[in-house]
Amino acid sequence: MLKVNLQKQLRDFELKIDFTVNPGEVLILLGINGSGKSTVLNLLAGLMNPDLGEIVLNDNVIFNSGLKIASLPEERNIGYVFQNYALFPHMSVFENIAYGLKMRKIPKDMITTQIQKVMEELEIAHVSSERVTNLSGGQRQRVALARALIIQPHLLLLDEPLTALDPHAREKIRLELREQLVASNHPAIMVTHSIKDAQIIGDRVLVLEKGVVIWEGKPKELESGVSVPDLSNLKCECYEYRDFGAIAID
Amino acid sequence: MMKPGTINSGNVTAKIAPVLFGLIVLITILFFTLPLLSLVLRLTPEEFIAAIMKPEVDNAIYLSLITAAASTLVVVLIGTPLAYLNARVPYHGRDFVETLLDLPIVLPPSVAGLALLVLFGRRGLIGSHLNDMGITIIFTIFAVVLAQVFVAGPLYIRQAKTAFAMVDQSYELASRTLGASPLITFIRITIPLAWTGLVSGVILAFARGIGEFGATIMVAGNLPGKTQTMPLAIYGLMQSDLTASISLSIVLIGISCIILITIRVLAGRSL
Question: Do the Cβ atoms of B175 and A99 come within 8 Å?
């Protein structure tokens, strides 16, 4: 379980958030570009430090400004799927997925067995020895997910994991991703600006605007977003998913 | 008379222009290649081999390779952390530090030599303390390395900084979230991804070091077998033994060619 209560002064506004994510729950952070969504992920992963507040993950305090606790990113055991996937281009698919396990000093034969299992589940076993630069968008996304999941993270963070995909692949992977996240049973937070992503993948949605939550509810309630004036304002006329400037309804 | 709207291609200028253009290109190419070619053609292979067997020539080649390798190693060890810092951390005064570091690249080597002499000389700021401890740097092999590090270091730091800056930071962040410390991330992610640029920097620094003349002669002197590197020996032997001097020049041309080809191959691979 994740409990978050944070403040961070950003260039244009102050980020102020307070939320909880339960085990197995997928929380969606929805908002236009620059609303502070990705910053929340970076603060949770330890890649940035909040000014004030506390982060408690599975009863462990990983950040507390008052007690001057700030665990390093490598100590938090948080899986992070970056927007561009950040797969190491000088390594093969296998080496990418093995990286986190090697850092945990897991014996070689165990690494091989675990990776084989995950790669089969995600249907990427046939590209095991390929350089990641030779993969399709969908395959890269799966490798990034496998790399983040194999370390058995206490929390999984996904930053627009479907943005880099073409519309056809996105449709397919969206459903797969939901299945993977449910099966993994980790608390997960996914950042997106697509209402459809939120509806299919999420259990709960927070809509962020200028660093504060302006709406919270179930994904299906987004459909009747008219009942929430602020949210209906966010539903712009952009139908192009790749338009990062706004929430897309594709 | 030409019809209005037509172009007179029979014009004399239009005929001469390509010839003139070709001539300028040819003269330019000859200007830069002929001097080097004349050096190579001056000696027979037998004369060349006999010359590089001479002890003073041999010593100069050996000393040059040893000092250039040592100075390159020092440059990499002291320059890499600074290059990474400049690539990643936007600290106050970074531009100022970078400009200072670029100074030795544009300074005349004699100025660099004099500056090192004033600092490390017997009465210098550091040299006087070293002298008290019984350590002398000036006119020793250490002074040769010192001069090479001073002039070659900035080239490596500049190149390494660019190489590090080109590594997308998200790879480093991903490595951290996967459990790697900053040092492990640097060794396993940053260095391999910046490798081509770093190697180019190392080669450039080596090339600059092995060709160093002006600063070296001022701080290390021109002592055969002790501080006389190839460029100094070429100068020293020019009047007494021109064959040896030319032979050393040919060796240096060969080394330069190898360096240039290596950089080209590396650059092609990184495309």
Answer: yes
ipTM exceeds 0.85, yes or no: yes
Residue B4 predicted with pLDDT over 70: no
Minimal-distance CA residue of chain A relative to B171: A86
B168/A151 CB distance under 8 A: no
With an 8 Å Cβ cutoff, are B179 and A151 in contact? Answer: yes
Give the number of other CB atoms < 10 A from CB of residue A23.
Answer: 13
Owner of token pair 């080669």:
B203
Task: Give, as one character, the DSSP assignment of residue A194.
Answer: B
Element holding A17 (H helix, E strand): strand A14-21
> Tell me, what's the pLDDT at A169?
77
pTM of the model: 0.84
Helix%, strand%, coil% for chain B, nearest 5: 75, 0, 25
**Helices vs. strands in chain B: H and E counts, helices first:** 13, 0
State which residue of chain B sits closest to A81, comparing Cα positions. Answer: B174
For the stretch B26-35, pLDDT in tens is 999 999 999 9
Instruction: Determine whether the interchain pair A84/B175 forms a contact, defined as Cβ–Cβ distance below 8 Å.
Output: no
Q: Which residue in chain A is spatially nearest to B178 when comparing CA positions?
A: A100
Give the model confidence (pLDDT) of A203-222 as tens digits: 999 999 899 998 888 888 87
Nearest Cα neighbor of A177 from A7, A60, A68, A28 is A28
Residues 98-127 of A with CB under 8 A from B: 99-100, 103-104
Closest approach of B95 to chain A, Cα-based (Å): 23
- pLDDT tens readout for residues A154-209: 999 999 988 877 787 788 888 888 888 888 888 999 998 888 888 889 999 999 98
Beta partners for A193? none
Q: Alpha carbon of A223 to those of A176, A200, A227, A228, B24: distances in Å?
A: 22, 12, 10, 11, 73
Token digits for B36?
């080097």
Say how far apart CA A193 and CA B167 lie, in whole Å: 27
Q: Residues of A with CB below 8 A from B189's CB?
A: 88
Of A84, A87, A103, the CB nearest to B179: A103
Is the CB of residue B242 less than 8 Å away from at least one CB of chain A? Answer: no
Q: Is B194 on the interface with A (CB under 8 A)?
A: no
